[in-house]
Amino acid sequence: MSIRLIVGLGNPGPEYEQTRHNAGFWLVDNLAGSTRLARETRFNALAAKTFVAGQEVWLLEPQTFMNRSGQSVGALARFYKIAPDEVLVVHDELDLPPGSAKIKKGGSSGGHNGLKDITAALGTQDYWRLRIGIGHPRTMGLQQPVADFVLHRPRQEEQALINDAIEKSLDAIPLLCEGKFEAGMMQLHTAAK
């Protein structure tokens, strides 16, 4: 078993491009490098097939809004017969501070609407998640509601920390694509504290 589909979560459109909720898109864009993601209307997404650590992997950025991400993920996974435990979903995480990133398999959505919809589309919670910390307005001393917080741009110092977590995550992803999950988790969890 290895990762065959890496999904970055975010909201489409230039008005959301720089918002915290698009951390998943940011990582997939970095991972794609010179590989261009193309519009795939049958999946309602931007997608590309690439190689990571010698393994063929699909990259996917749903072009639905966040709370309908499962439409794209489910459609591509069914079409290419990708099992839920071969899927890695990259998303913003309120419960982690900027600069940290964690990998886990399964578990609840933690109130994340994108994850709720993917769980419904795949019929299980047993897929991999790469959680990019964006912090929580309450722990950051902000009075901003969560929905407003995730749809705003991070402060400059937060963006630098988020970018650092993405870089460290990119180093661990090849191990996941080779099926070396424990090694990938250990590498990331010791690098991105």
Summarize the structure.
By secondary structure, the protein is an alpha/beta fold. Helices cover 36% and strands 21% of the residues.
Provide key terms for this protein:
alpha/beta; 193 residues; 21% strand
Describe this structure as you would to a colleague.
- The chain is of the alpha/beta class and about 190 residues long.
- It has a single domain (about 5-190), classed as 3-Layer(aba) Sandwich (Rossmann fold), CATH 3.40.50.
- It has six helices and seven strands.
- Strands 2-3-4-1-5-7-6 form a seven-stranded mixed sheet, sandwiched between helices.
- α2 (about 70-80) packs parallel to α3 (about 115-120).
- InterPro entries: Pept_tRNA_hydro, Pept_tRNA_hydro_CS, Pept_tRNA_hydro_sf.
- It catalyses: an N-acyl-L-alpha-aminoacyl-tRNA + H2O = an N-acyl-L-amino acid + a tRNA + H(+).
- It is found in: Cytoplasm.
- Its main location: cytoplasm.
Q: Topology, please?
A:
Elements: E1 5-8, H1 23-32, E2 38-40, E3 45-52, E4 55-62, H2 69-79, E5 87-93, E6 101-105, H3 113-122, E7 128-133, H4 146-150, H5 156-177, H6 181-191
Parallel strand pairs: 1-4, 1-5, 5-7
Antiparallel strand pairs: 2-3, 3-4, 6-7
For the largest sheet, list the strands in their spatial order: 2-3-4-1-5-7-6
CATH fold-level label: Rossmann fold
Based on CA inertia axes, which overall geometry fits?
globular
Uncertain stretches of 5 or more adjacent residues: none
Give the name of the CATH superfamily: Peptidyl-tRNA hydrolase
